[in-house]
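Supplementary material to the annual report.
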Amino acid sequence: MEKTIERLALYRRLLKNQSGKGNTHIFSHQLAGISGYSAAIVRRDLMNIGYYGTPRHGYEIKALIDCLNVFFNKPEVKSLILVGAGNLGRALIAYFIKDKTEYNLIAAFDSDPLKVNLKYNGCPCYSLEKIPELIAASQASVGIITVPAENAQSVADLLVENKIKGILNFAPVSLTVPESVYVENVDLALMLEKVLYFSVHHREGEKKNGMT
Amino acid sequence: MEKTIERLALYRRLLKNQSGKGNTHIFSHQLAGISGYSAAIVRRDLMNIGYYGTPRHGYEIKALIDCLNVFFNKPEVKSLILVGAGNLGRALIAYFIKDKTEYNLIAAFDSDPLKVNLKYNGCPCYSLEKIPELIAASQASVGIITVPAENAQSVADLLVENKIKGILNFAPVSLTVPESVYVENVDLALMLEKVLYFSVHHREGEKKNGMT
DNA sequence: ATTACTTTGTTAAATATATAACAATGTTTG
DNA sequence: CAAACATTGTTATATATTTAACAAAGTAAT
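Predicted assembly:
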């Protein structure tokens, strides 16, 4: 199911693109082509969320987007915060502040007094003490952690105390959190190592970057 | 095997840490604890690379690191380049320029003339035309793509033409490359969407962030 | 209308990955 | 030196994920 969720979010973005181009219908193999997965997996994914197309016309793009929006709880725009306004943190602020339709980055936090009270791309930066107050006020449920590894666990603890339910963690440590909190780790150095490894050992006939 | 590779790279980093702390041996359940995986999986992973511990002392850290270094082709330091010196690109330059023991970020490239000939954290930035020359000179085999989505495919084509064998792609598009080239996609917006989804739908008893 | 065709939804098989179990092994203890 | 113990290496089982296959259904052509 987890992989399916990832792909569904991708499909939604791609379908919005297609809709923007004026297309009204799409076949499973077309969605497969632009997403990089196989047609079989596209059909199976859509089956999972209960959306049905028609044999000759495929899927109706607008209806499918609506269906995906429902699946992803659309009308609700979730608030999120970011902790750690270093190089990566500020880059992510710039990245996530743009698209406001699915989520709303309401604040950044940093322990450096020189950064506090500044705004990055319009996003205000506060000191860490303000976290409880701002989470409470905004009902933020997700936090992004971009602090150094040694501070990540204490920041995670702070977020969990304040009812954060999901964490996107860029610090290269394994966070310990209650089972009810979902953590997604993004370890950039490890990803690069993986590419370095497979740049040497990768052989033809792998499925990665499929395209069937 | 892919998942195993990811974990092995993580183990190596954690073991170096432990070694730095003066520890000489480690048990599978300890490595499991700090990595966030289960002891069974740690043992299975190490079995896969043919390193053997002893029942009562566990694994000898230094020897295991050596073994992992061999597995990851250690003495060889691979060169890499980055294309797209925007917010994210510059943050990644700062991130990757630090650790020079496994890889060596030799240059960044950007189409913006205002960025060309600048240095970011000591990393020189060139125009895209210089790519062939610099790849040839450095024997770089891996490229990081942090350009906007609309330019990503053409940059990927350029890298492939110049014998790049692995790509770490941050642009939110599915790249089309020859099968011999390995692509790892990092789609930050999708990762955030995934966290948003599971922050609501995550239930106890999932395996993610295991800790067994 | 009937036939041929395309694409779907769904089931079945294949592959990949993780968990659990346990005999083998070496260590320590008495 | 034998018994108890902890931890390994490995195999067997379970789960997750992908691929492949194909009947059912709708469409277009004749």
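Chain A has a mean pLDDT of 94.
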